[in-house]
Amino acid sequence: MTNNYYEFFCPVKVIAGKSALEHLPYELTGLAAKRPMIVTDKGVRAAGLLDPVISACEESGLEIVSVYDDVPPDSSTSVVRDIAGVYRQEKCDSIIAVGGGSAIDTGKAVNILVSEGGDDIARYSGAGILKHPLKPFFVIPTTAGTGSEVTSVAVITDESKGVKLPFTSSFLLPNAAIIDPRMTLTLPPHITAATAMDALTHATEAFTCMAKNPLSDAYATAAIRKVSQSLVAVMDNPKDTDGRLELAQASTMAGIAFSNSMVGLVHSLGHATGAICHLPHGLCMSLYLPYVLEFNLETIREPLGELLLYLEGPEVYSATPAARRAEASISAIRKLRDALYKRCELPRTLKETGKVLESQLESIARLALDDGSIMFNPREVSLDDAMAVLRRAWV
């Protein structure tokens, strides 16, 4: 599992803490941005999460020129085109994306159009297309899971063709990510649980997949420790700002980790299940994680065993024989999923979701085999292998 050569890249400035939002105007003015636009969704606005952002700017004499709050859960090329039109009409000069993965991806795509020109975002799909830095771009996550604030990737749906368009470029990375626990205090329990499991999966796959490296390992293990220590506490006390900040930081750390070491079969199956059954990404990650780790077990026994230290702490780790630590890590993840099911009924199997039919499993498996993530899975996956994992995840 040791790579003789690796690259590690994360130039995003992270501003984190209980007054992080108040630093946004300083960051904007530092890039000569005076007419920012907010890109967000109806839920974020209804929860009052824009208020502290707007207040922080107004108190520093900065005006938010435009607020676009109609980003859908699965953003599309037409939405990106509409927002870019508003940006140009209002003569904005920067973007602040406030929300979860969809709002952040939309902000990235809008930034491509307003920086590069034109209305056809599909022209810029793929890797290595962008050649120049984009407009000033800032991200304020309102969930603690996707890690999108530190990734160089965006995915937007092309409705006319019915496909998801991927965009990959280091120029998509925001100038700064603002991690403030106030932004996740109103998350419902099931979203808190699913997004934290998304972060845990990012970190676990980053630590066990083929492109792992010493720097990504450091971020991954720190993220796993934070989720393990804080998630159940936050579920029991949703207003715990310290715990919320820990989960938000874990999400960012896991995002940095997997951006540099990639992910594997959990994500391949999750992407396919999301496309076919429209299950939320974080829920898919939570569902598949233990089953994929069992499938990969003999290939990842050593690194998976190391994760027991971060999942359960030093006492359990030292009391567990080295030969049993990998299995104990999987048991720890199952125990965490059971705790979440008890508190918010976050499904642990495909059957428990009530939204997946057994007849859809083969379609999910076939689509998963075409997903780019599968290349970095530590064990090769055939159609029969994918079907076996899905059947185990079914019941």
Structure explained in plain terms:
The chain is of the alpha/beta class and 395 residues long. It has 2 domains: 13-182, 3-Layer(aba) Sandwich (Rossmann fold), CATH 3.40.50.1970; 189-394, Up-down Bundle (Dehydroquinate synthase-like, alpha domain), CATH 1.20.1090. It has 16 helices and 9 strands. It has helices at 24-30, 42-46, 50-59, 77-89, 101-116, 189-208, 214-236, 241-261, 265-277, 281-306, 308-312, 314-319, 325-344, 350-353, 361-369, 383-394; strands at 13-16, 36-39, 66-68, 94-99, 126-127, 137-141, 153-158, 163-168, 176-179. A hairpin with a 4-residue loop joins strand 7 (153-158) and strand 8. It is globular and about 60 Å long. It starts with 12 loop residues before the first strand and ends with a helix.
Search tags:
395 residues; Rossmann fold; 16 helices; globular; 2 domains; Dehydroquinate synthase-like, alpha domain; 9 strands; 6-stranded parallel β-sheet; 3-stranded mixed β-sheet; alpha/beta
Tell me roughly what share of residues is in helical segments. 40-55%
CATH domain class name of the largest domain: Mainly Alpha
Task: Assign the structural class, choosing from mainly alpha, mainly beta, alpha/beta, alpha+beta, or little secondary structure.
Answer: alpha/beta
Shape: globular
The succession of helices and strands, N to C, reads EHEHHEHEHEEEEEHHHHHHHHHHH
Task: Count the domains.
Answer: 2
How would you state the average pLDDT, rounded?
A: 95
In terms of per-residue confidence, which ranges show pLDDT below 50 for 5 or more consecutive residues?
none
Rg on CA atoms, Å = 20 Å
Instruction: Quickly count the helices.
Output: 16
What proportion strand?
Answer: 5-15%
Order of strands, widest sheet: 1-9-6-4-2-3
What fold name goes in the CATH topology slot of the largest domain? Answer: Dehydroquinate synthase-like, alpha domain
Keywords: NAD, Oxidoreductase
Pfam family, one: ADH_Fe_C
Domain Alcohol dehydrogenase iron-type/glycerol dehydrogenase GldA: 11-181
Organism: Marinobacter daepoensis
